[in-house]
Design a protein that fits this description.
The protein is an alpha+beta fold. Helices cover 20% and strands 35% of the residues. Strands 1, 4, 5, 7, 8 and 9 form a 6-stranded mixed sheet that branches. A 3-stranded antiparallel sheet has the order 2-3-6, with no helix packed on it. It is globular and about 55 Å long.
Length: 165
């Protein structure tokens, strides 16, 4: 079910971006087949826990005017960012919510971008988001979920809303 939602989201998003429909279908197929291939451009890996090689990490950069800004960065070897060379690079990062809605999509331009990170802002509301990245050599990777929490209103704060978060 998730892969069907991901396909719909990616196909709609590809209309507004330069990522081709063929590339979107390739990523969807990688997510559908899961771990059949352990490594390579046709593999899909879900990563959890501490940041590791190829893991897309979502970092909350702060809130302003009802928006929360995140930086998504892709880890490489030994705690460094992933390489961004013509031979080995991150082609794109994208972020979905748990309903499969695309909240961010960024295709890297190797002529102007030298780091495997991008920044985006989304409305501040209670939900979880998940980052994905595609490495031209090693395939599609999914990072752990990150909570986006709306600040409680004065009435909710007085009533103890969000105490369990």
């Amino acid at each position: 079910m998730f892969s069907v939602l991901l396909l719909a989201v990616l196909l709609v998003s590809s209309v507004f971006c330069e990522i081709s429909d063929e590339q979107v279908r390739t990523w969807l197929e990688m997510a559908r087949i899961g771990t059949k291939e352990k490594s390579g451009p046709n593999s899909f890996t879900a990563l959890q826990g501490q940041p590791s090689k190829h893991q897309p990490e979502l970092i909350n950069e702060g809130e302003k005017d009802g928006l929360v800004t995140f930086r998504v960065r892709v880890h490489g070897p030994e705690g460094q960012l992933h390489p961004m060379t013509p031979e080995h690079h991150i082609s794109a990062v994208f972020v979905t919510d748990y309903s499969g809605n695309m909240v961010f999509l960024h295709e890297f331009d190797l002529t102007t971008e030298t780091t495997a990170e991008a920044t985006f802002s989304i409305p501040l509301e209670d939900r979880f988001i998940v980052a994905y990245e595609y490495c031209n050599l090693h395939g599609l990777f999914k990072g752990p979920a990150k909570a986006v929490r709306a600040a409680p209103s004065a009435e909710q704060a007085a009533a103890g809303a969000h105490d369990d978060l």
